Amino acid sequence: MWLVQSIRLTASGIWSQLQSRISCLHAHNFCLSLYPGLSMLPHAKFWKSEGDRKVLPAPTTIVPFAGRIGANQEFSLDKNNCTQIELLQKFPDAAPWIPLRDALSLRHFIQPELWKAATIEAVGPCARICNTFATGALVPSLLGAVTAILVLPLLIFATGPVSGAHLNPTITIATFFARLATLPRCILYIGFQTLGATIAGLLLRASFDTRSVCYSPPILGMRHWGSVADPLKQFTVPGCYMDATKVSPGNAFAIEFTTDFALIFTAFGVGLDPRQRSVFGPALGPIFVGITLATCTIVTGFSRVGYTGFSGNPARCFGAMVGSHFASYHWVHWVAPICASITHGILYYLVPPYSRGKAPNASNGSS
User: Which UniProt keywords apply (predicted)?
Assistant: First the structure.
């Protein structure tokens, strides 16, 4: 009896599958009768045999980069592997602890892959500068933290395979002093990051009509442009503006330096330490970096009256001031990250997360 039942169930299953395929075939023939041109298309057949199956194009090969944020050096090379010397000669920063001669060599400017990666780096600051609000200092800090948690990890995931997802001159400078990026990559990345932020600043100027708004010195520490500022036309980019009558540039530098160092230290710890792969894996690194930036933004936004929080991204503030007017304290947004990167580079040299064995010298070439 059980044998008859199993045969019945098997037969009914085969029959239902056959009916569904026949109905699909009838629908396909009906479409061909309405649109005869479909029969000429290469993919017009409903079923494909193994021989007719078209092979999809292979994805672009990821260029190894030891300074890729969020991957915990998953895609970096072993500098002691003799089979990878040719690739290391082309991309010395494919492995950590780049020899100084290779890190400072300018011949890598001719690598087209480096220019493509730098072009992608322009997207991040251009998107992040859009965290702009026409309100006071408190709300931008709160909303800036929320957008950092949501937007930054997505941008890291989107741009990481191509450029390493720095999206920030602070991170780029830090990877250079940590000997994870070459000087040509550092120059190109910072240049394109600033270019992307400049384009965003020009778009903000067109959107908010900010050149017709005149900021007085008591508000933002800028030069007086001859008229009273319209509050409805003002916008605030978190971390880029402060009340110069309440916060001096020296105070701003101290806050900026301390927070930049904390951001770099944490970003390297969760996004660039190869030992973290077995703890939470490279997929969670970008999310932790976004949480770190959000925490720094909201904490420093409440730290001082008249202070909208730390910059964390000098290119973003540069673009914001292109959209309005340049403040006299804009140097803080650049000097503080450089000093924090040098300090972190010294710490990274003293306590590296990897072995500093002798790497193949890319400058020698293969003879």
Answer: Membrane, Transmembrane, Transmembrane helix, Transport
